[in-house]
Write a structure and sequence with these properties.
Blueprint: H1 3-6, H2 15-22, H3 26-51, H4 55-75, H5 79-97, H6 102-126, H7 133-139, H8 147-176, H9 178-183, H10 188-210, H11 215-229, H12 233-256, H13 262-292, H14 295-301
Length: 302
């Protein structure tokens, strides 16, 4: 049980003491380790998702993680297998559909997504296990994360990041201007397929922490926030990782002292950062216009 469930004081206002108390539990140490791994992978993959304008594809892959996990539990196997199987399969289906016309691709993808979501709810209705199972799958949890799960997450993250590092430059070129990249001999189609598979693996990984409904937020919001603040690719990518890392660790701390789901806190913190970024950009633009139209500036430039 966590303090919020046993009636213990929620917060002592002594940061060092609170951190030591949280990390005295092995499952919380594993949760912070898993959160660090997941946040880095989700931010890096999500940065390319936002850059490539594939947020609908990311939403679809995250949505089908739910029926994957629910189906695995119904079959009596670990939900991890369901996450990875259906997320990667959905990514491959989307990659196959991208050759068609855009409106047909969107309609077919949305139709399959709706069917799989309905199948997921059917699996949860048929499942006779713990009543908290569907809520855990949908909204995430930090309870019960084992050292072996952290090892699996780290291994998957290493593979995803290694592949992204090897294709990063051509993928960036193909994401910014696919027509010119194709004309220069860049294998745009192959890069798209590989990236979608990486998206499926990253989604399956992050779903185990944030839940299937809110993994989309962790992948997209920090990346979108970073790209609002700066247009420089390297700095934007690093900033997205830092924002995702901060949202995950602060969310874990808040969830530890609260009965509410982890995914809610992670999403709320990330969304607050996005709003602050939009406000900062608007303020900066307004100040720039004001300075540019001031009498002193007009006199100098006249």
């Amino acid at each position: 049980m966590v303090p919020a469930e046993t009636g213990a004081p929620a917060w002592s206002w002594n940061l060092l003491t609170d951190v030591q108390e949280m990390w005295s539990y092995p499952f919380m140490v594993n949760a912070f380790r898993a959160g660090a791994v997941v946040s880095v992978v989700a931010a890096v993959v999500g940065w390319f998702v936002v850059l490539r304008r594939q947020t609908f594809a990311a939403h679809t892959v995250s949505a089908v993680a739910f029926p994957g996990a629910a189906g695995a539990l119904l079959l009596g196997v670990s939900a991890v297998y369901g996450y990875f199987t259906l997320c990667v399969a959905a990514a491959l289906v989307i990659a196959a559909l991208r050759g068609g016309r855009e409106h047909e691709e969107s309609a077919l993808t949305g139709t399959v997504q709706a069917f799989l979501l309905a199948s997921g709810f059917l699996c949860t209705a048929l499942y006779r296990g713990l009543l908290e199972g569907p809520q855990t799958i949908l909204f995430g949890t930090f309870l019960g994360i084992t050292s072996s799960q952290v090892t699996v997450l780290t291994a998957v993250a290493a593979v995803v990041l290694a592949v992204l590092a090897s294709i990063g430059r051509p993928l960036l070129f193909a994401s910014v201007d696919p027509q010119v990249a194709a004309g220069r001999g860049v294998p745009v189609r192959a890069l798209s397929v590989v990236f979608l598979v990486l998206l499926g693996a990253a989604t399956a990984e992050a779903s185990q922490i944030t839940g299937t409904l809110l993994v989309f937020a962790l992948m997209v919001i920090p990346a979108a926030t970073a790209q609002v603040l700066t247009a420089r690719p390297a700095f934007s990518l690093v900033l997205a990782v830092l924002l995702a890392f901060a949202a995950t660790w602060v969310g874990l701390t808040a969830a530890y002292y609260s009965p509410y789901p982890l995914g809610f806190f992670v999403t709320t913190i990330a969304f607050a950062g996005y709003l602050l970024a939009l406000g900062w950009r608007s303020l900066h633009a307004a100040l720039g216009r004001r300075i540019g139209t001031s009498p002193a500036v007009r006199e100098v430039t006249a």
